[in-house]
Write a structure and sequence with these properties.
- By secondary structure, the chain is α+β, with helices and mostly antiparallel strands.
- Helices cover about 30% and strands about 30% of the residues.
- It contains 8 helices and 10 strands.
- The termini are far apart.
- The protein binds 2-acetamido-2-deoxy-6-O-phosphono-alpha-D-glucopyranose (16G).
Length: about 250
């Protein structure tokens, strides 16, 4: 691991296409890359600050700064006296508007989806409220079970105005990638989180016992001009996910 990280760090230093003069940001990127390439697995320990400082010829302050950012992002966790580990549970920071696909890829996992619905229809009263659409408008509906390799992690039901995404078949793996192509990826979102116990059908889809803990998250995603481009209700497995928010006083 130490060697893989040192090689990656040196590669970034030598790569003239990467203009990153700050050593701690370069190191952060190198750690992110080795996690993504699975040179270090979830649960494994990162080399100590002292070893990294010696091998990379960087100050311990730089190493600490690089690591602190990744702990905040949820890629690394620290246990007092035991060191720094690659996070095992999926820690999702609430401060960044990322997609399921991006979150998993950043952890070296391969996201995929199984669709149970991918169609277009007239907006329901509840959807029209959530999306600010007038009755009769058309919406695209996507119902998916979301996996990391073969492990189901979440169930998601997304509704998107057809004026933004005209054809549901344009969504393959990632809704946000499809929206991006139309310049309509959400720029801001409002989320509501609720603790739930998963019903029989949801539990079966997520391979957990009926009544297991889950998190229901509703996200409304907005464009800069205020249009709502997404209304998604997700049920995430409570045994795998941690949602983390950074709070500040005024
Ligand atoms: C996340 C979002 C969901 C969004 C999806 C897009 C939360 C709680 N939910 O799961 O609202 O629709 O990502 O992911 O983060 P995709 O681009 O991989 O389809």
């Amino acid at each position: 691991m130490e060697t893989a990280l040192a090689n990656e760090y040196r590669r970034l230093c030598d790569d003239s296409a990467i203009h990153q003069p700050l050593a701690y940001l370069r190191l952060r990127r190198a750690i992110r890359n080795v996690i993504e390439h699975r040179d270090i697995e979830p649960g494994q320990t990162l080399p100590s600050e002292r070893d990294l400082s010696r091998v990379l010829n960087l100050s311990r302050v730089t190493i600490r700064k690089a690591i602190a950012g990744l702990v905040e992002e949820g890629l690394l966790t620290q246990r007092h006296g035991a060191g720094t580990f690659v996070a095992e549970r999926i820690v999702k920071p609430m401060s960044r508007l990322t997609s399921f696909t991006e979150d998993l890829r950043a952890r070296g996992l391969h996201p995929r989806s199984e669709f149970s619905e991918r169609g277009i229809g007239e907006v329901t009263p509840e959807e029209s409220m959530a999306l600010n659409l007038s009755p009769g408008s058309l919406v695209v509906r996507l119902h998916r079970v979301r996996y990391a390799e073969d492990e189901p992690l979440a169930i998601e039901r997304s509704v998107v105005p057809a004026s933004v995404l005209p054809d549901p078949m344009l969504v393959h793996d990632s809704l946000y990638e499809a929206l991006e192509k139309f310049g309509c990826r959400p720029r801001r979102a409002l989320q509501r989180l609720r603790a739930v116990s998963l019903g029989a059908q949801q539990a079966r889809l997520l391979h957990v016992a009926t009544g297991s803990a889950g998190l229901n998250i509703e996200r409304r995603g907005f464009l800069d001009d205020g249009r709502v481009v997404e209304f998604t209700s997700s049920w995430y497995r409570g045994d795998i996910y941690d949602f983390v928010a950074e709070l500040q006083t005024d």
